[in-house]
Amino acid sequence: AHDVLVEVKKTGICGSDIHFLVHGRIGDYVVKNDMVLGHESSGVISRVGSSVTNLKPGDRVAIEPGATCRTCDVCKEGRYQLCPDVKFAATPPHDGTLGRYYAVPADLAYPLPPHLTLEDGAMMEPLSVAVHAVSKLGALKANQSVAVFGCGPVGILCMAVAKALGASRIVAVDIVPGRLEFAKSYAATDIFQPPTLLQDETRIAYSKRSSAAMKEQLGITERGTTGIDLVVDASGAEVSIQTGLRIAKIGGTYVQVGMGPSDITIDMSVVLCKELLVKGSFRYGPGDYPLAIALASSGKVDLKPLVSHRFPFNDARLAFETTRKGKSEDGKGVIKAIISGPDVDINAV
């Protein structure tokens, strides 16, 4: 009675989709049966339940793809992303959104302003991840500095949110020059390409060397206005995490949004002696989708430059393969690939 049926029009490919496709698992989430992928989607309302009053057939919406129980402790305290019974799209055993239709509770279908496209709507999911990491957990304020490790879509969007919130300095870190160039053109004020790991060099030793080089090259200090108030790791790479903790200013905040190997080593004395506030960021929670839509609607975040590749529904396999390789046959690097719904023109945004 409280659900809506959405005819899916646009779906973005996420790194987690690729991980499930290639490895069949992410941490404790294991694919045991056939599973539909996709969770970054938008579409048009097809049908509404008998108790739904705020939506009607034909409305264009962004889909928040995780239905929660609404009655457990974390749901009631406003952290529903931690609900133990969440039914999240394309997380085993639940099917994803990459099909003709997808049903969600009505309050998880967010109307899109007329000037935002359905592609923009699909991008609200990764943008909400960035909003959650930077605004809600990172609590970034205007005129503060932020460093973001990893210039994939989520990292780039973390920079975009930081810029929209008035960050004075946004440092992008990645090992791929092309990604750094895009970050600089899009939202970053500074870029840093870490040095190469030396033969027989431990990762802890490397992170000390890399963070020292970053501080020297960019004039970063551990105190004062030239310090980094917020570090966001969107890579999940062990050396990035180790370096990020060393880059954060004394008393600063570190947010982990990228998911990587579970068995990593960090120097806890760095966390302790600098009294860092270290937080894990998991998906998004109350208010994150509305803020994401508001940032895009107001023009503070422009999502269009991030869509690098478009595929018709029947070429979904090629879309996943292209995203996995990181570039298409013509050599163009992938930032975000969008798959259109069945019978939907790829150029109909």
Structure description:
The protein has 349 residues and is an alpha/beta fold. It has two domains: 3-111 and 303-340, Medium-chain alcohol dehydrogenases, catalytic domain (Quinone Oxidoreductase, Chain A, domain 1); 130-280, Rossmann fold (3-Layer(aba) Sandwich), CATH 3.40.50. 31% of the residues lie in helices and 23% in strands. The chain has helices at 15-23, 73-76, 118-137, 153-164, 177-186, 203-218, 238-247, 268-273, 288-297, 316-325; strands at 3-12, 25-26, 29-30, 40-48, 60-63, 66-67, 87-88, 101-105, 109-111, 145-149, 169-173, 190-192, 228-233, 248-256, 277-280, 307-311, 336-340. The strands form four sheets. Strands 1, 4, 5, 8, 9, 16 and 17 form a seven-stranded mixed sheet that branches. A six-stranded parallel sheet has the order 12-11-10-13-14-15, sandwiched between helices. Strands 2-3 form a two-stranded antiparallel sheet. Helix 8 (268-273) links the parallel strand 14 and strand 15. The longest helix is centred in the middle third of the chain and has 20 residues, at 118-137.
